[in-house]
Design brief:
mainly alpha; two-stranded antiparallel ribbon; 21 helices
Length: about 475
């Protein structure tokens, strides 16, 4: 029963249903495929709240757990509190990105079915990645999601920017995946296992090859730094997010990063907990570089998607502070920040997807937006304020919470850099507000038509930003429970 109701498997079934629907739908009826995707994701999201009530079954256990090794039982996959949290958040990303792309994709391509099938398979891969309990299961899940995202980045074959984005993402992603895989091999060579709990057990007993383990951990950290677009491994993000279809840029900006951070939580709090002297220093350097490079380079950007890419690099530098803190308070703060980040970033990307007049997505597209589309301008404004960390938006409490976690861990210098970086970010964020409310557009008198699906997505993001900003305690309590369960 559990095998049929686990969110990851249900998402895989949904992707197969989307593929099969192409055989039964006529070309002029394929516009209902986004509705199938959203309906299926909503159903899975609802069922995920009933999933913890189901017990383990012998079928599920025999397939994924209880493989005997010299170090004990070998577990490849489990549905614990963190995996359920990740599954729900990723399903929300899938729903919002589908709402964003509903009208956008139909105007750009006729291959609608494949687009949503790939997007759903990518979500499935990310969900399995979060639920993985050993390194090889994690890596296979990561590559499953990555292959789908490579294809989606280059999905518009008649667009040179999209093809360039897909090619760059594929070549660089494959290179850093190879580095990560080599790191996994070294960790296996040092510990004789790829299981998170068994790696921790070997490290605790002191039976590992220390040199191999150190190099392996560093290579895995480099792979994560690339996937999360942490400086100096951020070189792919600006070009890929600028050239990819806007809904995919949004998905890369939020979903892949959310999944990556949740896997990193598992590795640093379970597998490599005794190796903190290695990964803390590594991510500390990356965080400072990301704060400096991400925010300073963003100041000069005139392309909105490229600006959001550098903004994402800056935001990730705050998120990684929860990992560096290396305590339950930091993990809880990181999880809360991820929820706020998803709603905030997707709100702004929805605005970009609706107002861009050409593939460049220039800042000039935002000129006079307050007159052409007041509601859209309001959503963009509240999203910008949330990224700035202005109350009562969820971004304020997210930054406060994550900074408090770093202070509790006594990383005062890191918090100081973060505060300076936040101040610098105000310049380019407020520059977007200036474009919407002060600059004049040649088409001030022509109202901007927004699709109903995009309006629905904007309302969801708006409610999420405001609700978790005004009433954070419920989510904080839940995040604390998830952190304590690890």
């Amino acid at each position: 029963m559990e095998l049929l109701t686990a969110p990851e498997f249900l998402t895989a079934y949904l992707a197969l249903i989307i593929i099969l629907s192409e055989f039964f739908l006529k070309k002029n009826h394929q516009n209902i495929i986004p509705a199938i995707t959203i309906s299926g994701a909503l159903l899975i999201l609802t069922l995920s709240f009933a999933f913890p009530l189901l017990g383990d079954t012998s079928l599920f256990t025999s397939l994924f757990n209880n493989f005997d090794t010299s170090l004990g039982k070998f577990i490849t996959y489990s549905s614990d509190h963190l995996s359920l949290f990740g599954s729900r958040l990723l399903l929300v990303c899938l729903i919002l990105c589908t709402l964003m792309s509903w009208d956008y994709v139909q105007k750009k391509t006729k291959n609608i079915c494949e687009f949503y099938a790939l997007l759903t398979f990518a979500t499935c891969g990310l969900m399995f990645m979060v639920s993985a309990q050993e390194l090889m299961t994690f890596f296979v899940s990561l590559e499953t999601a990555s292959m789908c995202l490579y294809a989606l980045s280059a999905y518009f074959k008649d667009n040179d920017y999209s093809l360039e984005a897909g090619m760059k993402y594929f070549l660089m992603g494959a290179s850093f995946s190879a580095l990560m895989l080599y790191g996994i091999v070294l960790v296996y060579g040092a510990c004789g296992t790829t299981s998170y709990t068994q790696i921790a057990k070997v490290c605790l007993l002191g039976n590992q090859n220390v040199a191999l383990l150190y190099v392996g951990v560093i290579l895995i950290c480099i792979g994560f730094a690339f996937k999360l677009s942490l400086a100096p491994f951020h070189m792919w993000a600006p070009d890929v997010l600028q050239g990819a279809p806007t809904p995919i840029s949004a998905y890369l900006s939020v979903a892949s990063k959310a999944a990556g951070f949740m896997v990193l939580i598992r590795l640093t709090s379970i597998a490599f907990v005794s190796m903190s002297m290695v990964w803390v220093k590594f991510f500390l350097i990356c965080a400072v570089l990301s704060m400096i490079l991400g925010n300073l380079i963003a100041v000069r950007q005139k392309n909105m998607k490229r600006l959001m890419a550098y903004s994402s690099i800056g935001q990730v530098s705050y998120l990684i502070m929860g990992i560096i803190a290396a305590n339950n308070f930091g993990i809880s703060a990181l999880l809360y920040f991820l929820v706020s980040y998803v709603f905030t970033n997707l709100a702004i990307f929805m605005v970009i997807a609706n107002i861009s007049k050409h593939d460049g997505d220039d800042m000039s597209d935002f000129y006079g937006l307050s007159k052409r589309a007041p509601f859209v301008a309001m959503v963009a404004t509240l999203g910008i304020l949330s990224l700035c960390g202005i109350p009562p938006m969820s971004g304020f409490f997210a930054k406060f919470y994550i900074f408090a976690a770093a202070i509790k861990a006594k990383y005062f210098t890191l918090v100081f850099f973060a505060l300076i970086a936040t101040t610098v970010s105000l310049f380019y964020y407020l520059n977007v507000l200036r474009a919407m409310y002060i600059e004049k557009s040649e088409n001030d008198d022509s109202p901007l038509v927004i699709s109903s699906s995009s309006q629905a997505g904007m309302w969801v993001c708006l409610i999420g930003m405001l609700y978790f900003g005004l009433f954070p305690q419920g989510l904080v309590t839940f995040c604390t429970e998830v952190a304590s369960s690890l």
